[in-house]
């Protein structure tokens, strides 16, 4: 076991790693600059229904299963159970369903009547949708708070408001970090800095190219509890929070959104999202209250970058769909940092090693 582990970044990935490592008795310090976190602006839908290839589907499914295991030791703040999805229609719907069935997904098709039985407030439901009973949404901010509190109770130290400028090394081994307030020694450094990863690694000559993928998340003023599931229609994704607010990305199909710029003012986009929501929920008195802008941490090919990188003792974990993948990543990072690559981690992470970028 490394004698001292520094985790740079206290978003969901760093917090999950801190939790799992301290549960194994590791000596962990979490250092966080206090920058805006993607974790706090996330839609936080834990799903396998959005995927690009078979390996990624399997990783995301493992992500859902790992949340179940996390729930055995920590109170996970789940806010919605099950998703109703009809982003694709016609032949595209059939193709997606065929792929999902071939992969053994936990999905069933429901008709308009069944959709109304599940969500009576949705006006003019589609003729059919896919229902994913095992997908969930969580309060990701509350979850990070719980994870860090549990890590702290197990001995982890927290350095907040501290910007990490670089990683130090002697020969081919990591020796610690440099920060805005001095150097801190460590024999293992885990970089979980989200969108800050590319710049931090560039400081030691490592190139991990990342995309610019801004997203806008809107909250409405609270309304009476109406919606119980995660809803993904062709025009809008949304879910309802425990305080009654509807949470919705302002771009439809936000998971597949490849825009590198927000082209219109956030309030104009939020107004347009409210109009789309009102068409689906005509009986709800919907007004937007808050819009959050955040960049998604996304390596250049859109897939996670996880594993040892550069000098011995350095490890990176940055990804989109980091909420879906957080619980499984916490387990895999813990295994690889404490015991080295396992058969399971080698298998699940084979397609996501940073070396694919020539690092
Ligand atoms: C609009 C939007 C919607 C999303 N929807 C979903 C969804 O529905 N499902 C899903 O699975 N994923 C979703 N995601 C993606 C998901 O939220 C992210 O993948 C995840 O939150 C990334 O967590 P993280 O810990 O890697 O990064 P962050 O939460 O961004 O945390 C990184 C931390 O690193 C710190 N840091 C950075 N640089 C330094 C430095 N040099 N020194 C010290 N500290 C530093 C920051 O202060 C920050 O606290 C969405 C993201 C966005 C923006």
Task: Using brief descriptors, characterize the structure shown.
single chain, 359 residues, alpha/beta, FAD/NAD(P)-binding domain, D-Amino Acid Oxidase, Chain A, domain 2, 9-stranded mixed β-sheet, 9 helices, binds flavin-adenine dinucleotide
Overview in brief:
It contains nine helices and 18 strands.
Description:
With 359 residues, this protein is of the alpha/beta class. It folds into two domains: 5-41 and 141-211 and 299-357, FAD/NAD(P)-binding domain (3-Layer(bba) Sandwich), CATH 3.50.50; 80-136 and 214-295, D-Amino Acid Oxidase, subunit A, domain 2 (D-Amino Acid Oxidase, Chain A, domain 2), CATH 3.30.9. The protein contains nine helices and 18 strands. α1 packs parallel to α5, α1 packs parallel to α8 (322-339) and α2 crosses α8. The structure holds flavin-adenine dinucleotide (FAD). Flavin-adenine dinucleotide (FAD) binds at residues 8-14, 31-35, 37-39, 41-45, 163-164, 192-194, 196, 200, 215, 217, 249, 294, 296-297, 318-324.
How do the helices and strands follow one another from N- to C-terminus? EHEEHEHEHEHEEEEEHEEEEHEEEHH
What average pLDDT do the residues reach?
A: 95
Count of all domains: 2
Number of strands: 18
CATH superfamily of the largest domain: FAD/NAD(P)-binding domain
Helix run count:
9
Please state the structural category.
Answer: alpha/beta
CATH architecture descriptor name of the largest domain: 3-Layer(bba) Sandwich
């Amino acid at each position: 076991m490394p004698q001292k582990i520094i985790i740079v970044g206290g978003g969901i990935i760093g917090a999950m790693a801190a939790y799992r490592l301290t549960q194994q008795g590791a000596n962990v310090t979490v250092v966080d600059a206090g920058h805006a976190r993607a974790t706090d602006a996330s839609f936080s839908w834990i799903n396998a229904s959005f995927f690009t290839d078979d390996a990624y589907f399997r990783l995301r499914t493992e992500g859902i299963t790992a949340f179940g295991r996390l729930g055995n030791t920590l109170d996970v703040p789940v806010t919605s159970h099950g998703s109703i999805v009809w982003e694709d229609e016609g032949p595209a719907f059939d193709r997606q369903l065929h792929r999902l069935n071939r992969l053994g997904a936990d999905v069933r098709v429901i008709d308009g009547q069944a959709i109304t039985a599940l969500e009576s407030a949705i006006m003019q439901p589609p003729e059919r949708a896919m229902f994913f009973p095992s997908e969930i949404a969580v309060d990701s901010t509350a979850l990070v708070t719980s994870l860090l509190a549990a890590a702290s109770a197990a001995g982890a130290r927290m350095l907040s408001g501290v910007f990490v400028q670089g990683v130090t090394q002697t020969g081919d081994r990591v020796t610690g970090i440099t920060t805005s307030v001095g150097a801190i020694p460590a024999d293992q450094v885990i970089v979980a800095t989200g969108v800050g990863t590319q710049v931090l690694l560039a400081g030691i000559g490592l190139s991990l190219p990342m995309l610019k993928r801004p997203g806008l998340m809107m909250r409405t003023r609270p309304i009476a509890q109406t919606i119980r599931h995660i809803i993904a229609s062709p025009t809008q994704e949304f879910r309802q929070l425990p305080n009654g607010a509807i949470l919705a990305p302002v771009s439809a199909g936000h998971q597949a959104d490849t825009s590198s710029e927000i082209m219109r003012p956030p309030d104009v986009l939020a107004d347009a999202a409210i109009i789309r929501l009102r068409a689906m929920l005509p009986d709800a008195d919907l007004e937007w209250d808050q819009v959050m802008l955040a960049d998604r941490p996304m390596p250049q090919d859109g897939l996670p970058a996880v594993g040892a990188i550069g000098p011995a003792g350095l490890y990176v974990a940055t990804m989109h769909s980091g909420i879906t993948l957080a619980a499984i990543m916490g387990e895999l990072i813990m295994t690889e940092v404490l015991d080295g690559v396992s058969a399971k981690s080698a298998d699940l992470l084979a397609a996501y090693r940073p070396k694919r970028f020539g690092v």
